[in-house]
Amino acid sequence: MKFVVASDGSRGDVEPCAAVGRELLRRGHEVHVVVPPNLVGFVESAGLAAVAYGLDTRKLMEARRDLACSARDPRGIQDLMRLWRECREFRNQCWREISTTLTSLADRADLLLTGRVFEGAAANVAEYHDIPLATLHYLPVRPNGQLLPFLPAPLTRSVMTMKGWLAWRTGKRLEDAQRHELGLPKATRPSVRRIADRGSLEIQAYEEFCFPGVAAEWVKWNGWKPPRRPFVGPLTMELATDGDGEVASWIAAGTPPIFFGFGSMPVESPADTIDMIAGACAELGERALVGAGWSDFGCVRRFEHVKVVGAVNHAAVFPTCRTVVHHGGAGTTAAGLRAGVPTLILWWAGDQPYWAAAVKRLKVGAGRRFSATTRESLVADLRRISGPQYAARAREIATRMTKPAESVAATADLVEDFACLRRAG
Length: 425
Description:
The structure is a single chain. With about 425 residues, the protein is α/β, with parallel strands linked by helices. It has helices at about 10-25, 40-45, 55-70, 75-105, 120-130, 155-170, 170-180, 190-195, 215, 245-250, 270-285, 315, 330-340, 350-360, 375-385, 390-400, 405-425, and strands spanning about 1-5, 30-35, 50, 110-115, 135, 200-205, 260, 290, 305-310, 325, 345, 365-370. It has two domains: about 1-235 and about 405-425, Glycogen Phosphorylase B (Rossmann fold); about 245-400, Rossmann fold. Helix content is about 50%, strand content about 10%. A six-stranded parallel sheet has the order 3-2-1-4-5-6, sandwiched between helices. Strand 10, helix 13 (about 330-340) and strand 11 (about 345) form a beta-alpha-beta unit. Helix 1 crosses helix 17 and helix 3 runs antiparallel to helix 4 (about 75-105). The chain starts with a strand and ends with a helix.
């Protein structure tokens, strides 16, 4: 069968789709992977051929960081509006390029698999070609009453529904233009509604117990054969990196360190961040391992008890650490849970505060907005989650996590079965 696997966003958005694509390729299928240009090399390192579409997502991450910083400064209204327009134009250009690329690649495909970013554009292409659509979600993004535990369930569902409707209205002109080019009628409902009503496969790539109660709300979706919103666990390839040996040697040479990593979220001031981390760890008597991710830590001060590296293999490094501190991406959070160590999430935006709330609800860690973090708060948070009760609870949760190979295999099974179901029909 022919599968088209499309994912935009950061590495955390792309890796789950690539993991499924690699498994489908191993099973003998024809697989076409399309990702942003800055992540083509990453996908190819996993053994997949990749086609570039859209724009370099690092630029979008930087623009969003600058937008968030400007929003905190009431004097920067002009910069705020400029950055907002830049983000909007970035989105519009990506949408147009994604539509063009997918329309060509998805011709005669048996299924189109997409991540959540720009899933509306992919859904329109699948509708145009009349092929099944499967989406990967890294937290419960469809309306439910459990995502915001501090609100009553009915209010949470209403908030999520309204948020989805507003997002659709904001981009409706762009979507209408795409549908017009494809010869499809104007949309009268948000894409999330159309995706569900079309009977698409909406794979929940996270652990069900992280958001208790969601599965019960979606019983009607999982009463189908195959289920429409199945839970498969987090998806990852656990790829090795060039620096794994050096990192392992450094860790073995001393006490277990605290890991700090910010993934695709570009840190506004790497120098200030390193100073904060070094000061907090010195006060606690701990070593720090810092994963630079997409931030440039090349010109920061060096400290004897702090090691800065590039990319790291979370699956190999996290179990050897005392605690993990990160931005709260779904993949990084899952790696921390699988490692069985306490987690502190210093979040920026997007789905990150939801994962901060989840680790707090699971009693395996804590969360705080990155912009509100100081050396003093970092010391206090790390002391709080370093207690034996957090370590014991983290080890317990680790035993409940689905093994990566099982998650990937289950997802590939679902995608194959869903494509075959349409063929049989």
